[in-house]
Task: inverse folding
């Protein structure tokens, strides 16, 4: 029972220093990897996939360990993760919008010639 | 008839984990974030709103880049830098990325030493973080100068391709640089308080009159890591894509 809910001493985060060093090193490696994607001219779908994978991994480690999200209760985790995830809907909407704008520009500019 | 029911106050209510805990926390009275001090909860909520701002910036960048009929300038070449020999692609941006990550590492450790109430180490690590941040802003100033003066990039036009490149670049990196600058100022301010021993002596804050506590270091850390987090996305979408 005692471990269940000690709201009295509002959460003191104590983690061994090794965790931070490991994540720090990992972030360096991941950054170097994403830079290598550009340096070695990886192109097209492989490029975009690698960039996104490295980006999500880096973001995940920063939020989970450096920002201590990993050790928070689900109430906070969901409150912070779900709303940004919904931005993906916005991304889809704007993809349609951008395609439409591109299409009208193509038509309009070719007519103007 | 004077019997009263004794309300038990001996122990606090159990907090279940997992989904059940999530529902219970959110449907409970008074506070949803049970074991989080309010300063930290408020910083998280501020960061959430900031996430939306940067999401909108990156979204508008996506829309603009997808809808232009003029080729987008190749960032790999635009941000190349030569040290005497051949230009190395994106080298300054890579260095800036490593600097910001290093600053995040020192900040994480400052937070850790803060909770160990190690006044000296916390203050020194925060100062190191601030110096990393300041050098990041310095490099950004150099990058902007190079782009504006040498390459002739303007918010409305540039010699390399799509006109929107300049406005998007200045808006996104400018807003991020502003966040870093504000972070550096606050890092110095909090580091000074740590150094003075405000958090050991629970000295009341100047504006808030609340007791000083090392919790402020963690709240500061959250902000700083967020700045690094945003850079991860800018680096991926603007510079590498």
Result:
């Amino acid at each position: 029972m005692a471990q269940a809910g000690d709201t009295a001493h509002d959460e003191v985060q104590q983690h061994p220093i090794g965790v931070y060093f490991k994540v720090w090193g990992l972030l360096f490696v991941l950054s170097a990897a994403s830079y290598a994607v550009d340096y070695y001219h990886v192109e097209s779908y492989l490029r975009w996939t690698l960039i996104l994978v490295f980006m999500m991994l880096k973001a995940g480690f920063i939020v989970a360990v450096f920002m201590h999200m990993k050790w928070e209760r689900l109430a906070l985790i969901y409150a912070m993760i779900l709303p940004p995830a919904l931005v993906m809907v916005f991304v889809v909407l704007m993809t349609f919008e951008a395609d439409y704008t591109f299409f009208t520009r193509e038509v309009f500019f070719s007519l103007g010639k | 008839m004077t019997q009263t029911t004794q309300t038990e106050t001996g122990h606090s209510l159990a907090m279940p984990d997992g989904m059940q805990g999530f529902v219970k926390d959110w449907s409970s009275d008074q506070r949803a974030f049970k074991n989080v001090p309010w300063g930290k909860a408020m910083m998280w909520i501020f960061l959430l709103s900031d996430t939306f701002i940067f999401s909108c910036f990156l979204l508008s960048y996506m829309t603009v880049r997808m809808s232009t009929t003029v080729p987008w300038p190749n960032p790999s070449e635009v941000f190349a830098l030569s040290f005497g020999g051949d230009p190395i692609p994106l080298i300054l941006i890579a260095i800036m990325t490593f600097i910001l990550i290093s600053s995040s590492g020192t900040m994480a450790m400052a937070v850790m030493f803060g909770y160990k109430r190690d006044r000296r180490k916390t203050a020194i690590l925060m100062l190191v973080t601030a110096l990393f941040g300041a050098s990041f802003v310095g490099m950004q100033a150099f990058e902007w100068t190079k782009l504006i003066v040498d390459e002739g990039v303007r918010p409305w036009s540039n010699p390399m391709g799509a006109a929107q490149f300049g406005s998007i670049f200045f808006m996104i990196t400018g807003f991020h640089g502003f966040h870093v600058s504000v972070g550096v100022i606050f890092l110095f301010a909090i580091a000074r308080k740590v150094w003075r021993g405000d958090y050991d002596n629970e000295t009341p804050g100047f504006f808030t009159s609340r007791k000083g506590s090392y919790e402020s270091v963690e709240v500061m850390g959250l902000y700083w890591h967020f700045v690094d987090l945003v850079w991860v996305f800018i680096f991926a979408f603007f510079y590498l894509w």
Remarks:
- Helices of chain A lie at 17-39, 44-66, 74-112.
- Confidence is low (pLDDT under 50) at residues 1-10 of chain A.
